[in-house]
Specification:
Blueprint: H1 2-23, E1 28-31, H2 33-39, H3 41-78, H4 84-137, E2 142-145, H5 159-168
Parallel strand pairs: 1-2
Helix pairs in contact: 2-5, 3-4
Length: 169
C-alpha cells in the first residue's frame, strides 16, 4: 500500500514537471568554465603577474640564503680563533638570519597566495558577468557549468562564444 502511494506521488510529480517543461521550451546552454578561464587573456596576464612576483621573491630568498651560507662558512673558518663572545655573536647572527629567511618565506607565500586568490576571484567574477550578459542577450533560460553535468550534447556548449566575448573586451 505504501509502495503504491510513493509510485503515484512520483508519477504525479513527473507528469507535472513534464507539463511545465512542455509549456515553455527552455533554451539551455553549457559552459566549460575551466576552458574559458584558461583561454581568458586577462586570466593569463594575472597568472604571468603572479609568476613574476614569485620569481622576484625566489631571487630575494636565494640572496638571503647565500648571505646565511657566507655567515656559516665564515663562522666555520674562524671559530677556532674566536673568543666565546665572538662565537656567541656570530651564532646569534646565523640564528637571526635563519629566522629572517623562515619569516620571509612564510610572508612571501601568504602574500602570493592571497594575491593569486584575489586575482582568480576577480577573473571568475568577470567570467560570470559575461556569461550572464551572454545569456540575457541570447535569451537563454539557463546556462550550466559543464562540471555539473555527467553528459551533454556539444550542441549546447557555448564556451567558445563566452571566450570570444571575454577576450573582445
Amino acid at each position: 500500500m505504501r509502495m503504491n502511494k510513493c509510485t503515484v506521488v512520483a508519477a504525479v510529480c513527473l507528469i507535472s514537471l513534464s507539463t511545465v517543461l512542455a509549456a515553455k521550451d527552455l533554451k539551455v546552454g553549457v559552459v566549460d568554465v575551466e576552458k574559458v578561464y584558461a583561454a581568458y587573456e586577462k586570466a593569463k596576464a594575472s597568472a604571468a603577474e603572479i609568476q613574476t612576483e614569485r620569481k622576484s621573491k625566489q631571487d630575494e630568498l636565494a640572496k638571503k640564503r647565500e648571505e646565511l651560507k657566507a655567515l656559516r662558512e665564515d663562522y666555520d673558518k674562524r671559530k677556532d680563533k674566536m673568543t666565546e663572545a665572538e662565537k656567541k655573536e656570530m651564532e646569534k647572527k646565523i640564528a637571526d638570519k635563519s629566522r629572517e629567511i623562515l619569516a620571509f618565506t612564510n610572508v612571501s607565500n601568504q602574500e602570493l597566495q592571497k594575491k593569486n586568490q584575489e586575482l582568480t576571484r576577480a577573473r571568475l567574477d568577470e567570467i560570470a558577468k559575461v556569461i550572464q550578459d551572454y545569456a540575457t542577450k541570447n535569451k537563454y533560460d539557463l546556462i550550466i557549468d559543464k562540471k555539473s553535468l555527467p553528459y551533454f550534447s556539444s550542441a549546447y556548449n557555448v564556451s567558445d562564444d563566452i571566450i570570444k566575448a571575454l577576450n573582445a573586451k
